């Protein structure tokens, strides 16, 4: 019998919540009975959505009317108090009542409240925001995506270790290739922080990952690198650029296939291939960014996703806990 994973869910974060959160839980439960949900939020609203959809032995509702608003600054979100659904969800992990936290709420507030409640892993200075990106050969872990605007060489080295630990938690049969995101592939390119990190990684062999040097932005999707490391400013720009490019391609393709009779006929003839193409670029299937570096895992869902995206974030939570991510980082650091 599989281990039951206890997931703390902030049901009130993100657009159209709690409905999309509860719909995501219900959808995920149809294919995975290994999760127990501690659901934090408005009990009346949540009960009306989940009653008779899932056996009550698989969830518990912890009632609170207080929420962190999407418009709050990180400090304002933290000041809303210890009775918000976000704070209580994180606190349940701190108190060992849950194994992992999932929220689609305010990203800045989630990071601040997480840092207030959870300790850092020893010898790690900063947590990083990481996510999964599709590539030609499978998936890559990319970090940091915005938690830390400025990083030193020690931080980037930590991110390399944490990112490779995350990858092996999700894909235990693979040894990842790690690379630093840079403006060129030559050893002398980049700022002093990047070059210093390169020297440390290049001279230090690790049983947990292979160091592949630098990677440029136009190589992110080629699949030769599994863990891509950068500071939060560069990583966030890369993320938004990739998202925008994917949306542009799918929108333009849709226009081309629907604007004329020939396009419509072509789309019908290529329906199966177009469906595969759309699925490959569907951001909901890669939903679920992870704050790593804290002594308990925290997963951030995109606030604008739907129940499919929430369900995929729940799958990420399950894999992280089953993959023993925190202990992997502690042993590798």
Give a short synopsis of this structure.
By secondary structure, the chain is α/β, with parallel strands linked by helices. It has helices at 19-29, 43-50, 74-79, 85-94, 107-117, 153-170, 192-202, 232-258, 261-269, 271-280, 307-322, 325-332, and strands at residues 5-10, 35-41, 59-63, 100-103, 128-135, 138-143, 177-181, 210-215, 227-229, 289-292, 298-300. It has an eleven-stranded mixed beta sheet, sandwiched between helices.
| Strand element count | 11
Rounded average pLDDT: 88
Series of secondary-structure elements, N-terminal to C-terminal: EHEHEHHEHEEHEHEEHHHEEHH
| Number of individual domains | 2
Question: Architecture of the largest domain in CATH?
Answer: 3-Layer(aba) Sandwich
Strand arrangement, major sheet: 3-2-1-4-11-10-5-6-9-7-8
Instruction: Determine and state the CATH class of the largest domain.
Output: Alpha Beta
Strand content: 15-25%
Instruction: Calculate Rg over CA atoms.
Output: 20 Å
**CATH level 3 topology of the largest domain:** Isopropylmalate Dehydrogenase
Helix content: 40-55%
